[in-house]
């Protein structure tokens, strides 16, 4: 089944599904091997892994280049965190074309302004996009896709910027009418109250996606109870790698030796396996002249 069809099935399935963050080919492969059915190509994580801020400092073509490695390394669908679409409707529709060419199954765009800023940094001061302008962007993206299953998710930042339920609902409904396939409702509260209020009024008009980074103590069954379609574990491979790399670098620097860490890191054989070294050996036997 095509990756776009897989992602569409995930979002339309009647049960709660999960996708996991990855930020390069290696982490994408690990997400697939551990059992996830889809990948969140996080803007925060990709930019952090590149050593820059989550403020569109990496150009969109640099992001697309990372995505190509992620897509090549995996057979499950990737949903790109496409920020604001990297410009106006025209930039966003060109993005859709390029994503389709690289085998990306869908993109999520948020109703803020370019250059965006991460929602968890002074979210209340971030300017939102005009509703009409954002709807035009959604329409242009839907018109640009050539694969009917390619997914456009509209992310509502009303709660992040301190606006209330009415504004969140007004925006989500406008984005639905503009042709979005799903809405992502974001919240930075440590509890699920905003999401719960939204879900009750929204009443299943379109599938709903959430990012429970800040309300991580909410039991997952609560998401099911509210009828949420897709939960994104948005940055935990990046954060776990930061913790692991700091620990190992610190230890090696301090000890001037590898003796203490050899058993704490992945064996080299595991690196080769993840890279698919065996396949190359078999191909060499097939295609190179016998020694
Ligand atoms: C990301 O992963 O980059 C996201 C989710 O956009 S959040 O960081 O929660 O805004
Ligand atoms: Mg992001």
From TrEMBL:
Pfam families: PEP_mutase (PF13714). The keyword rRNA-binding does not apply. Keywords: Isomerase, Pyruvate. The keyword Isomerase applies. One of its GO terms (molecular function) is phosphoenolpyruvate mutase activity. InterPro entries: ICL/PEPM, PEnolPyrv_PMutase_core, Pyrv/PenolPyrv_kinase-like_dom, Pyrv_kinase-like_dom_sf. It is an enzyme of class 5 (isomerase). It comes from the Bacteria. Its EC number is 5.4.2.9. Belongs to the isocitrate lyase/PEP mutase superfamily. PEP mutase family. This is phosphoenolpyruvate mutase. It comes from Paenibacillus oralis.
